[in-house]
């Protein structure tokens, strides 16, 4: 069934399109998403519907956000999917996901995200975290490693801190290039992001956390003291119990939040 979907549409480089074509992998992803009518189901970038079809089979209504007008036209006229889809044609990076929120329901969001927009799109979605039950994204494997990295590792960075501030991050499965048409040059993986209902390290001002992390990670080879000297004194670091001689990847999410909260209090 999923193979028919590829007829007549050529993947477009500018949209970063690679279409999933492996039924076993598709089955595992759909099982992880666990579609149901108790949540508002939202797919970003349905493409040719490889995940859209098996998800829609299990539910009454699926919201989709798709940029490519040709693919929107295909989905709209699809004999089985058409009536079930609530299609929003446009850029997911600018889309107001708040308009999909239904009374008494949280959202389950999923998608196969093009590499070039995956990071800004996740930052955009974190703004709606309170309305989201979970998110399942197919990403470049390297991005999943960054999302789930531990302090002290090479992959740990600004994206790690912001993602782990908002969500529990759980890698679900790896997807080899041969599962796609055309095969990408990189390995992919699926990650589950579960926004915290009660944040373990509440931040008073998220803009300050963005500012501290981007300033800290701007020059990874330098120490926190060097990178953050315009923001914090040695006394500040001592007060918070943060070792200023460490590099940015060596301190925890909780410590970044403590630094951001100190800025907020001034």
Can you put this structure into words, describing what you see?
With 266 residues, the chain is an alpha/beta fold. The chain has helices spanning 23-33, 52-57, 69-76, 115-126, 141-147, 158-166, 206-217, 224-227, 234-240, 253-264, and strands at 19-20, 40-44, 62-66, 85-89, 107-112, 132-140, 167-175, 180-181, 188-195. Helix 6 (158-166) crosses helix 10 (253-264) and helix 7 crosses helix 10. It is elongated. Residues 1-8 have low confidence and may be disordered. Its EC number is 2.1.1.182. It is an enzyme of class 2 (transferase).
By DSSP, the count of extended strands is 9
| Overall geometric form | elongated
Largest sheet: 7 strands, mixed
- Whole-Å distance between the termini? 59 Å
The overall pLDDT, averaged over residues, is 92
What is the number of helices? 10
Round the Cα radius of gyration to an integer and report it. 20 Å
Which residues form runs of ≥5 with pLDDT under 50? Answer: 1-8
Helix amount = 25-40%
What structural class should be given to the helix and strand makeup?
A: alpha/beta
Question: Strands of the biggest beta sheet: in what spatial order?
Answer: 4-3-2-5-6-9-7
SSE string, helix = H, strand = E?
EHEHEHEEHEHHEEEHHHH
Strand percentage, roughly? Answer: 15-25%
GO cellular component, one term: cytosol
Catalytic activity: adenosine(1518)/adenosine(1519) in 16S rRNA + 4 S-adenosyl-L-methionine = N(6)-dimethyladenosine(1518)/N(6)-dimethyladenosine(1519) in 16S rRNA + 4 S-adenosyl-L-homocysteine + 4 H(+)
Pfam family, one: RrnaAD
InterPro entries: KsgA/Erm, rRNA_Ade_diMease-like_C, rRNA_Ade_Mease_Trfase_CS, rRNA_Ade_methylase_Trfase_N, rRNA_adenine_dimethylase, SAM-dependent_MTases_sf
């Amino acid at each position: 069934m999923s193979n028919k979907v590829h007829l007549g549409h050529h993947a477009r480089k500018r949209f970063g399109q690679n279409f999933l074509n492996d039924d076993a992998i598709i089955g595992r992803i759909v099982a992880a998403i666990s579609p149901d009518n108790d949540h508002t189901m939202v797919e970003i970038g349905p493409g040719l519907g490889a995940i859209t079809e098996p998800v829609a089979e299990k539910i009454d209504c699926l919201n989709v956000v798709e940029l490519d007008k040709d693919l929107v036209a295909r989905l709209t006229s699809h004999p089985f999917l058409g009536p079930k889809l609530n299609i929003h044609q446009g850029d997911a990076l600018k889309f107001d996901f708040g308009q999909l929120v239904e009374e008494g329901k949280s959202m389950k969001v999923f998608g196969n995200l093009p590499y070039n927009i995956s990071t800004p799109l996740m930052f955009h979605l974190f703004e709606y975290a309170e309305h989201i039950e979970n998110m399942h994204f197919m990403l470049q494997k390297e991005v999943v490693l960054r999302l789930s990295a531990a302090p002290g590792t090479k992959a740990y960075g600004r994206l790690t801190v912001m993602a782990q501030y908002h969500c529990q991050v759980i890698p679900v499965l790896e997807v080899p290039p041969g599962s796609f048409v055309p095969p990408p040059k990189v390995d992919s993986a699926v990650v589950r992001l579960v926004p915290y209902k009660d944040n373990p390290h509440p931040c008073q001002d998220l803009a300050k956390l963005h500012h501290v992390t981007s300033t800290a990670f701007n020059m990874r080879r330098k120490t926190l003291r060097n990178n953050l000297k315009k923001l914090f004194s040695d006394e500040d670091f001592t007060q918070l119990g943060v070792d200023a001689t460490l590099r940015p990847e060596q301190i925890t999410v909780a410590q970044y939040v403590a630094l951001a909260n100190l800025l907020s209090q001034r």
